[in-house]
């Protein structure tokens, strides 16, 4: 029973470290990188003035009435 807590603590600390690194890697490669690529693809062809004019024509803005 000597050093039982220290032995179990070492095992659980290493286990928690590897699980957290695994979760971080899964998040980065499974969610963050595809999201970055999707945003980059969207903004490649995005025209903010065209979008503004569409919203203006729809009457979204009070300060910029539709033409």
TrEMBL record:
It is found in: Mitochondrion inner membrane. CDD domains: CcO_VIc. The keyword Transmembrane applies. Pathway: Energy metabolism; oxidative phosphorylation. Component of the cytochrome c oxidase, the last enzyme in the mitochondrial electron transport chain which drives oxidative phosphorylation. The respiratory chain contains 3 multisubunit complexes succinate dehydrogenase (complex II, CII), ubiquinol-cytochrome c oxidoreductase (cytochrome b-c1 complex, complex III, CIII) and cytochrome c oxidase (complex IV, CIV), that cooperate to transfer electrons derived from NADH and succinate to molecular oxygen, creating an electrochemical gradient over the inner membrane that drives transmembrane transport and the ATP synthase. This is Cytochrome c oxidase subunit 6C. It comes from the Eukaryota. GO terms for biological process: mitochondrial electron transport, cytochrome c to oxygen. InterPro entries: Cytochrome_c_oxidase_VIc (IPR051389), Cytochrome_c_oxidase_VIc/VIIs (IPR034884), Cytochrome_c_oxidase_VIc_sf (IPR037169). One of its GO terms (cellular component) is mitochondrial inner membrane. The keyword Transmembrane helix applies. Component of the cytochrome c oxidase (complex IV, CIV), a multisubunit enzyme composed of 14 subunits. The complex is composed of a catalytic core of 3 subunits MT-CO1, MT-CO2 and MT-CO3, encoded in the mitochondrial DNA, and 11 supernumerary subunits COX4I, COX5A, COX5B, COX6A, COX6B, COX6C, COX7A, COX7B, COX7C, COX8 and NDUFA4, which are encoded in the nuclear genome. The lineage of its organism: Eukaryota, Metazoa, Chordata, Craniata, Vertebrata. Belongs to the cytochrome c oxidase subunit 6c family. It is a single-pass membrane protein. Keywords: Membrane, Mitochondrion, Mitochondrion inner membrane, Transmembrane, Transmembrane helix.
């Amino acid at each position: 029973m000597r050093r039982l807590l220290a032995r179990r603590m070492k095992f659980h600390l290493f286990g928690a470290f590897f699980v957290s690194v695994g979760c971080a890697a899964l998040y980065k490669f499974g969610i963050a990188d595809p999201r970055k690529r999707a945003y980059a693809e969207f903004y490649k062809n995005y025209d903010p003035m065209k979008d503004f004019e569409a919203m203006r024509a729809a009457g979204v803005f009070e300060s910029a009435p539709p033409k």
